[in-house]
């Protein structure tokens, strides 16, 4: 029997892929810097650590109309965790012992990962090169 596909989901993102406004920085109801809850399933066997890169793939940039924008970088997620709770970002130290090794990095706004190490998307991808057992993708729109 083949194993199921490695999946990343959020219970707050609708079936149409709509990211609720409260997780953005725009409009009524926005709660700046509130990360959505994420869950993953069917982690590849042998996984020692998980990493997460969240990008806005069509963010406008004054010098270039459409560029991917790194919103969130998270490293050292234990494979024993089944996800990250809503509002985890910036509160990893308060989330409990199970989350103690999780580290947040810098996003493209050049903001530190709320007490995290100086990890960027490029440094993370370089560090995991040759060690990736699987990838999962979640697409949302707003």
TrEMBL record:
InterPro entries: PEBP (IPR008914), PEBP-like_sf (IPR036610), YbhB_YbcL/LppC-like (IPR005247)
Record region (Disordered): 1-38
Organism listed in the record: Cannabis sativa (Hemp)
Name of the protein in question: Uncharacterized protein
One Pfam family this sequence matches: PBP
